[in-house]
Amino acid sequence: MKNLLSFCLLLAAIPMQSQTGPADYVHPLVGSANEGQTYPAAGVPFAMTHWSPQTRAGEIKCVAPYYFGDRKIQGFRGTHFMSGSCVPDYGSFTLAPGMGALKTNAVERASSFDRATEHAAPYAYSVELKDAGVKAEITGTLRAGAMRFQFTRDDDAWVVIENNARGGDGWVRVDAAKQEVTGEVPVRREYAGSGKLAGFSGYFVVEFSKPFADSGAFAGAKIAEGKAEQRGDGQPVGVVRIPAISTAVVGASKAVIDMPTGSPRPGFGGYVRFPGAHAGDVVVARTGTSFVSVDEARRNLRAEIPGFDFDAVKQQARAAWNRSLGQIEVKDDIPARTIFYTAMYHALLHPRTLSDVDGSYPAFASMGRIAHADGFTYYDDFSMWDIFRAQLPLLTLLDPQRSVDFVRSLMAKGDEGGFLPIFPAWNSYTSEMVGDHASVAILDAWRKGLRGFDIEHAYGQMRKNATELPKDRAEYIDGKGRRGLDSYLKYGYIPLEDHIGDAFHKNEQVSRTLEYAFDDAMIGALAKDLGKDADAALFTGRGQNWRKVIDPQTGFARGRLANGAWVSPFEPAGKYSWITEGTPWVYTFFVPQDVPGLIALEGGPKRFEEKLDRLFDGKYYDHGNEPSHHIAYLYDAAGAPAKTQAHVRALMESEYRDGPGGLAGNDDAGQMSAWYVLSALGFYQVAPGVPEYWLGSPRFHETTVLLPSGERLRVIAKGAADGKVYVRRVTFNGTEIAGFKLRHAQLAGGGVLEFEMSAQPPVK
């Protein structure tokens, strides 16, 4: 109740006259409590660096920069934490302003604040730090940021610049002659190669609108007046291990209570002073970032923030968000509009821009080589197991040119590293999660008509991933290639004897089999499109491997031994090492490439419908985790679309709310949010790679999608905003739709999609 009251006070503090664009309907604090793992990222869509208040120090796995439940702010971070995830930050640094006695330690300098002064928008964040004596505002561009610090009393003022390097290495340099602060934050890997250097760093340059009078450096509790450079924190270099944190149900919220707000490392950096400051004095800090060099960070800064006009940068960021969010116009003035635009904001944060203004970027998995993106922007941090389902498909509709750049980025990674990455983050292989969905992301774009990349070359990369092992064990351990591919090729499934030890997620043999079967089926569909008949037959056949891990006797996904025997004892609601983050109840339904085949195996449409009923009635469905996301739409294929409509609408109402705890689970780089955006429009892509959408239940009376082609897609569903859930009839451009599917080409071409809504389900 206290958090809810605080959030209401926060909303009351937002000037209502600012409600002139979709960006002003966004509440970035949604998901920053409980399990959402989001934070109020300020700046622009898909930015290289996001700017966030910091309530938790250090680059700690599964610890976001900010949690709503924390009562003190330690500074403002240039962060690369993947929104809504359970990963470590990387290449990050923090600016912390204050007055009076210099405080360098993050916990000691942390300032209390009045929640009513906290204002979070996609394009800016502001708060009044009571203890620090500073009103702080932050905003950003694609590769740079601006912070405005207004001092609220007469005293000496200072700004600490802390290097957050996970390994305690790197440096911060204060150059009094140039009046700038620069730094290098070495990046370390996670999952495959956990803790090892990734071969590149985050670089930053900070400049101030007023000259600083003196400066120094610090490492831990040791402050060195006048020192120009600090290298490392003085402790042995390397990742300090902490107790494992889970971000499953009650995991993140429990960690907020149990974990210290300080870092396991002592911290280091530099500081600058502005002595004799008066109440009302303002200092603006502008910061350039790069993953290539300080020179590139400086070049990015000059290109994107050439002066110290904070308000101009803020307005540019606001305009950028209004352009992106304004691609979908929601006409209805109801609370769900805020939930919709907040979800859309979260869905437009990642993947991350990694290339500089001149196209330079650290080559993938290359340990230091610099590459150049010619004619495209290079992206990284693809939470692929999550976002291939809805977030990337959403962008193929809203932003096809950026989607092409995503494809070119994935292909560049495949060329530079030798294999398409499974889950590319930290510009490295990770072997995180299961499946091989980079292939699906690429072919989904192609099969939807997106061009601008060499599909024959991409197909060769997909085929290599699906058929070849790395050249040696060292490459495999480093994260290259499909986990368990040798077993999969031998048996058509991964038997339980193959424990998949060289992965963060070990075992999970059944889930891997099901996801590889889906990937292979999609590769087979692309092979057919390209006229590769032999490959089409091969991969389409492998797409049926799902049948080898769904027991026809029980009708459930089930662990299987190399001799073909099913594992016993077995309980479909049980937690097993051979299932990824879920239960057999959920993974049984991951056969999006062959829903008719799954229905037949389960005994026909009626029995399939009844099984879906048992899933939902038994509360086995888990919307907080991605494998569930397509399941409600499967009623469509069972001849029970009214149940799809009822469940989809119920999930929109129960799993998404306005408030810090408004997400039921990790947002996972925008996937959970993208589900809401698509579902609220009335459709969802059940099988990425198959360019069609399944119909659900729209949330609004009317929405308009402004397509990049200049066409408009109007979605009309009169009564939807008033509680009408069920659909009597659907037409597209006046022609009634037979069945429950729409082709991507139809929607991308624009037109009028109209749902005739009803408060009651149809009588069978």
Write the layout of secondary structure elements.
Elements (H helix, E strand, L loop, with lengths): L1 H11 L37 E5 L17 E2 L1 E5 L13 E7 L6 H4 L1 E2 L6 E3 L2 E6 L4 E7 L3 E8 L3 E9 L7 E5 L4 E9 L8 E12 L5 E6 L2 E4 L3 E3 L19 H8 L9 E10 L4 E9 L3 H11 L5 H16 L2 E3 L4 H13 L4 E2 L6 E3 L7 E3 L6 E2 L3 H4 L3 H8 L1 H18 L20 H10 L7 H13 L5 H5 L7 H7 L17 H21 L3 H10 L7 E2 L4 E2 L26 H4 L7 H7 L3 H13 L23 H14 L16 H11 L1 E2 L7 E4 L6 E5 L5 E5 L9 E7 L2 E2 L4 E3 H5 L2 E8 L6
Short description:
The chain is an alpha+beta fold. Helix content is 28%, strand content 22%. The chain has a 9-stranded antiparallel beta sheet with strand order 6-7-8-9-18-13-12-11-16.
Structural features, described:
- This protein is of the alpha+beta class and 764 residues long.
- Among the domains are: 31-325, Beta-galactosidase, Chain A, domain 5 (Distorted Sandwich), CATH 2.70.98.10; 381-593, Glycosyl hydrolase family fold, CATH 1.20.1610.10.
- The protein contains 21 helices and 33 strands.
- The strands form 8 sheets. The protein has a 9-stranded antiparallel β-sheet. It has a 7-stranded antiparallel β-sheet with strand order 1-3-4-10-17-14-15, with no helix packed on it.
- Strand 21 (360-362) and strand 22 form a beta hairpin.
- Helix 10 packs parallel to helix 14 (509-529), helix 11 (455-467) runs antiparallel to helix 14 (509-529) and helix 14 (509-529) runs antiparallel to helix 15.
- The longest helix is centred in the last third of the chain and has 21 residues, at 509-529.
- It starts with a helix and ends in a 6-residue tail after the last strand.
- The model is unreliable at 1-18 (pLDDT under 50).
